[in-house]
Amino acid sequence: MKDVNNPFGIGKKIEGNNFIGNAYLLSLANADWDENFSVSTVTFEAKARNNWHTHPHGQILIATDGIGYYQEENKAVVILKKGDVIKCQPNVKHWHGASHNSSFSHLVVMYAPSNEAVVWMEPVTNEYYNEVSK
Amino acid sequence: MKDVNNPFGIGKKIEGNNFIGNAYLLSLANADWDENFSVSTVTFEAKARNNWHTHPHGQILIATDGIGYYQEENKAVVILKKGDVIKCQPNVKHWHGASHNSSFSHLVVMYAPSNEAVVWMEPVTNEYYNEVSK
């Protein structure tokens, strides 16, 4: 990957239909004393992003490298850079990913049963991505 | 503070008797939907460290800058650098802090009621610190 400096590592490419573009996931720590509690890192190539989704139990994002976007439904895109923290409130529809010209990485901190971590929805189309982030 | 580059900020000096040397705490995110769930960052000046302690509900540490030490009772000191992750198992006695010649910062991820976050114990004396980390 170009221009990525994720100190926590890159991990494996995320397969499936919940992302547009290339993104990578590395699990950093599952708390073996409490399986609901986990820390991982996600790295997006430039322009890559996940689909709209919600977290029934919320999620905390901590930006660690590059320039990214975060958007909640009916709100403006927030630009994220290293050190920024986002609290994804439970059941608030949103997406996140990299900006046009830079990769982006963040830590993901979750406290949720694995089968209640995320509810995936429709893709963030190229047209929409280009429109809201121009 | 010299030689500290904590992208998440430094925060306020930690007062009280549970640390030797200067250390700083900044709360990054309390999950307002679940008060047990929090992310913060701690920054230690060189040689600063916390007392021996345990976490009844465990804790995850993610090193973000500098060179630090982590030690569990009856084990060798582990040297920590940016990107390293430590799982503090529930009720395992340990301490952490900066190395001799470098400050150190880490993220702290907790899932615990605030009054059950930590059980503080005796200090890590200068003699002990110097002996185990030489």
SSE diagram, text form:
The structure is a homodimer of 134-residue chains.
Chain A: E1 12-13, E2 19-20, E3 23-30, E4 37-44, E5 49-50, E6 53-54, E7 59-72, E8 78-81, E9 85-88, E10 94-98, E11 104-111, E12 119-120, H1 126-132
Antiparallel strand pairs in A: 1-3, 2-5, 3-4, 4-11, 6-12, 7-8, 7-9, 7-10, 7-11
Description:
The structure is a homodimer of 134-residue chains. Chain A has 134 residues and is mostly beta strands. Chain A is built from one helix and twelve strands, in the order ββββββββββββα. In chain A, the strands form three sheets. In chain A, strands 1, 3, 4, 7, 8, 9, 10 and 11 form an eight-stranded antiparallel sheet that branches. Chain A has a two-stranded antiparallel ribbon with strand order 2-5. Chain A is globular, with a radius of gyration of 14 Å. At the A-B interface, strand 7 and strand 11 of A face strand 7 and strand 11 of B.
